[in-house]
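Run folding on both entries below.
>entry_1
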Amino acid sequence: MKVTIAEVKDYVGKEVTIGVWLTNKRASGKIAFLQLRDGSGFMQAVVTKSDVDESVFQQAKSLSQETAFYATGIIQEDARSPFGYEMLLTNLQVIKEAVDFPITPKQHGTEFLMDHRHLWLRSRKQHAVMKIRNEIIRATYEFFNENGFVKIDPPILTSSAPEGTTELFHTKYFDEHAYLSQSGQLYLEAAAMAFGKVFSFGPTFRAEKSKTRRHLIEFWMIEPEMAFYEFEDSLVVQEQYVAHIVQSVVKNCRLELDRLGRDVAKLEKITAPFPRITYDEAIEFLHEKGFDDIQWGDDFGAPHETAIAENNEKPIFITHYPTAIKPFYMQTAKDRPEVALCADLIAPEGYGEIIGGSERIHDYKLMKQRMEEHNLPLEAYQWYLDLSKYGSVPHSGFGLGLERTVAWISGVEHVRETIPFPRLLNRLYP
């Protein structure tokens, strides 16, 4: 019977066949230990010379790394293994031998591994990170579907930009100018006026010339928009959503978290509500910590965000940023028009901003005024202006960057390991 490694728990004491690749092996005298993977997981097969034909034993000892074969054997429990099961191999059938696989069990440099990303994905660590990414995506759909959101897919090619065109990839759209989307937000706002609560999940592109461990050129975002939700309402949704995906990973990816050496106890504490601090309070706090370079009206960099978050076990909201450093569409506070009803959610442990969100402007005159202040071409945004002209209501939304969130939850240092094929400032291959 053919099964997968993930299914062997249901076949203890039975003989099964699994299509596998060899990740590593060691042999000593009359016994060989084969480390196997099949995509669904990793496990060990034990080959004992006295239990198999001589040809099978010799073939097992000669297998090279990443050779593909069918492994047949009896499944038994193994308390010494984190996985909990192993195979007593009785037979094998080679499908395709691999020769001189370039990524050996020794240490390799980052650039070498990135050049071989198509093969590096097979490693235990990368497999664990991708499984955690997949769980976050699954839990995302679960959360929004269970809370009455409708998934809407905004376009990737756009004629305008929600936050200006300075960091966008320009292309030609027949005889027109077009850009790769940096956010689906404006289109999601239109959809929220039709469906109430909506969300999107898709790729976004930023032509930002940054080489930090937090930045990618192409990344994926989850962007909800909610009609009749004011600023405070949105913060509640954000903390509930983040807590949901973290606890889903803790529940369903314990093996992967252990493989990465992640401190699960820290993740178990991520429950709503989250602490909050205003921008004004953050500036005062940073001055007390010796950050004399930051002044009111400046945006925060990575060192500032890390300092603010380091004393909190949970993510922390920084709210009410200066209007002047935020996009045109953010609603201003009634009593303080110089600040916006917005918030960034900063992850603990130095992982920085994972969410940016705000209440959106719904007044036609104010929206038009803000567009003019930002020197945006009104004709390109006429459809968006229509939203605040025809039955607009208070509404809010936010965007969560998937890769930064994966990095934080999985505990990996750089976002390049959180997406299958990262696009970086100096990397478009493979």
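>entry_2
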Amino acid sequence: MTLGGKFMRDINTVASSWLLVATLCAGAAGAIAAEPTNSPASPTEELRYPGEKHLTHLRQLTFGGQNAEAYFSFDGKELIFQSTRDDLKCDAIFRMDADGKNVRQVSSGKGVTTCSFIAPDDQAIIYASTHLAGDQCPPKPDYSQGYVWPLYEGYDIFRADPEGGNRVRLTDTPGYDAEGVYSPKGDKIIFTSARTGDLELFMMNPDGSEVEQLTDQPGYDGGAFFSRDGQWIVWRASRPEGKALADYQSLLKQGLIRPSQLEIFIMNLEERKPIQLTDNGAANFGPYWHPDGKHIIFSSNMHNPKGRNFDLFLINVDTREIEQITHHPDFDGFPMFSHDGKKLVFASNRNGKVEGETNVFMVDWRW
């Protein structure tokens, strides 16, 4: 769902950051970029910070540019991610082996893309793209109203072959459609859409049919992921009231959203009653279930809600106990556990060659 460069000097001011990009999945790409080398590093503990006890054999998979939202294939052998690199002016979708090798672009390079995911059977990929609205990258938003994310009307969700061929458009309603992910069985796709005049969660079949609305409260609902058993979802949401609601609705009419306060919610897909997990007034985003169904990892600036230091945190769904996982003094975000729970992939500013560079990292997870 949408971030880049050096991550927010102040969440209410303009910054070159992973929150500064085109969509709202877990994030998108920013502006500062170095020449990628695509040279995978050997496992090293030098990339870890004190206190990161759950992370072992930390290795860097991308080198230079803006790289984020890396998500595992179901078997854990590959990753799909978005990147601004080489001559690209905005994000395109790439695949690579889980060790960082065999990097290749699987989107057309036209428009801007975000929020990619691999089908559980590895026979298809999905991602959001604006290429039907134009070949060029959409313009950056106007920050005269403060720190905002753009919601490009040209975004639709597309399914393609594993290497990007035979693209099929799955959504065709006016306005923003993005942030799509497959269920573990591959029988459903959950996504965010502005089709009702608000930003709500929807679910559809893999061919785009039988669309049903899952949320209906005023505010942004997005960045959803299924639990390993497919029975629950987790997502981030805003629930503005009073002047904050008026501001949200005014920005939404302009295709913008202010992301300074987002809380983590879960919902059982049978009962469909949202349950709020966090209540800290910070920017909490990028939640993902651990396969045990008892823990959720997410990124947050809860220790400094006005600041740019985002770390990964783990919350126990039953007790609400929160544990800080990363301690890098800048940006860590977009976490995803492998489906066996043995590995964790995330994006970070750590070890960047230039300020604001964001790369993909892999660790072995230990309790």
